[in-house]
Design brief:
Length: 89
């Protein structure tokens, strides 16, 4: 029975996919959304530009309110494959 060989282009493309995923996971900032710092109600982004809200990093939105993240960007750890776990910023 003949042994099947992988083409070098398949190996290269697979490796590039892993590299791209690693760079994306480690290099990108956490999700951010504008929110009221007192009530945690999600606001339109222009409210943060006007100084009426603050950016809330990570977490999610449930029933119009942010949760599971933090107003301090450095407190939110992106993590991911191959990341050191230290804040980038």
């Amino acid at each position: 029975m003949a042994r099947r060989r992988l083409r070098s282009s398949t190996v290269v493309l697979g490796g590039m996919g892993v590299l791209a995923a690693t760079i994306t996971a480690c290099g990108s900032d956490p999700d951010k959304r504008c929110a009221d710092p007192v009530t945690r109600e999600k606001l339109p982004s222009y409210e943060c530009d006007d100084g009426n809200g603050r950016y809330y990093y990570g977490g999610s939105v449930s029933k119009g309110y942010v949760k599971g993240g933090d107003f301090d960007k450095s407190a939110v750890d992106r993590g991911g494959f191959g990341c050191s776990g230290s804040g980038g910023g």
